[in-house]
Amino acid sequence: MSGPNSSYDPVQVTPLGEEQVFAMRDEALAAIEAAADLEALKQVRSDHAGDRSPLGLANREIGALPPQARKDVGMRVGQARGAVNQALAARQEVLEEAAEEQMLLTETVDVTLPWDRRSRGARHPITTMSERIADTFVAMGWEVAEGPLVEAEWLNFDALNLGADHPARTMQDTFWTEPAENHVVLRTHTSPVQARTMLTRTPPIYVVCPGRVFRTDEYDATHSPMFHQVEGLVIDEGITMAHLKGSLDHFAQATFGEGITTRFRPSYFPFTEPSAEVDLICFVCRGSGLNETGDATCRTCRGEGWIEWGGCGVVNPRVLVACGVDPERYTGFAFGMGIDRTLMFRHGVEDLRSFFEGDVRFSRAFGTEI
Ligand code: PHE
Q1: How far apart are CA 116 and CA 274, in angstroms?
Q2: Residues 58, 63, 67, CA angle at the centre, nearest 5°?
Q3: Domain spans of the chain?
Q4: Which atom of ligand 1 is nearest to the CA of 312?
Q5: Which of 191, 217, 248, 342 has most ligand 1 atoms within 8 Å of its beta carbon, as the pocket-test mutant?
Q6: Ligand-binding site membership of 273 (annotated)
Q7: Where is the signal peptide (predicted)?
Q8: Residues 6 or more apart from 357 whose CB is under 8 A from it?
Q9: Per-residue confidence of the chain (370 residues) as pLDDT tens digits?
Q10: Ligand 1 neighbours by CB, cut-off 6 Å
Q11: For residue 337, which atom of ligand 1 is closest to its CA?
Q12: Which residue lies with its CA nearest to atom 2 of ligand 1?
């Protein structure tokens, strides 16, 4: 590097003359203005304000100039660098602001947008209960049997010892389909599945059949023209009422908890002989008929200590004969319960219609048990 000169030779200073320095400055200012983002500005800073930029190099040259020139050029270059640095700082601020705005824009979460997560929904409590009941019997080796909802009159009534003029036909108010001469009904109970099963299988038979049934009942808090029953049928050698009682006690325990037993009251069904009504010992008061504090009646059984649950009996030999089963060799038992009714007292549901009106808040209360 050349040492400082004592005389001022304008020719020597030409490369750092006004024009050149202004050109460097203007080029830098233009580049700064053109920088579109912070990344570009960083590059502009190193190109136009760094040690190796034209102005940076010019700055280094100043020391080698004659003293007179040093002052002029120093001021000129200093001003140019000042202007460039100022422009850089200003541009930096503008671009930072823009970047932040962009970030806010792209990362915005609009919490008012519609929610697109679908609720999982719940299975219908009657479906859950039906399957639960079926599971109890399947666990004992029984099978699940099914039959059609629209049924032949013969299977719904005649095969079950309910002939055309049998007074008990009026016990079940029937929906008949047209034309009447087809003798087709909406099944009034699940018992035709008994007949269908015996007609298509050979004993031993152990089946359970949950399903819909129809009666011309008013639609009110305790009746519905469509409701659900579960039928059980066993046909085997040496089957007695004791097997029936044992099976129902097991069913009661599986559904209502340990220690819950059943009692039989004599009754009449054309398809069973003898027949009985099945009562369940109240699973809340356990037969006492009193509430927890003992000063009022139990709300679940209304003070009875027992709850009516369904019908049952030993299969009438006439039904066995009608369905092609040898009554000398086989005996059997059958039972039928209302599923909706079972759920009502099991969960304290006051109005049967709650099951059928489709309000998810009701179904949800039973959980999403699968
Ligand atoms: N099917 C009868 C009813 O609906 C119930 C029942 C079934 C009774 C099986 C005895 C045996 O009332």
Answers
A1: 59
A2: 115
A3: 10-106, 125-364
A4: 10
A5: 191
A6: yes
A7: none
A8: none
A9: 455 555 555 555 556 787 888 889 999 999 999 999 999 999 999 999 988 888 888 888 888 888 878 888 888 888 999 999 999 999 999 999 999 999 998 888 888 888 777 777 778 899 999 999 999 999 999 999 999 999 999 999 999 999 888 877 776 789 999 998 999 999 999 999 999 999 999 999 999 999 999 999 999 999 999 999 999 999 999 999 999 999 999 999 999 999 999 999 999 999 999 999 999 999 999 999 999 898 999 999 999 999 999 999 999 999 999 999 999 999 999 999 999 999 999 999 999 999 999 887 888 787 665 4
A10: 189, 191, 231, 269, 272, 311-313, 334-336
A11: 5
A12: 336
In CATH terms, 125-364 corresponds, of 3.40.50.880, 3.60.40.10, 3.30.70.1350, 3.30.930.10, to 3.30.930.10
**Which amino acid is located at 32 in the chain?**
I
Q: How far is Cα 45 from Cα 272, in angstroms, rounded to an integer?
A: 101
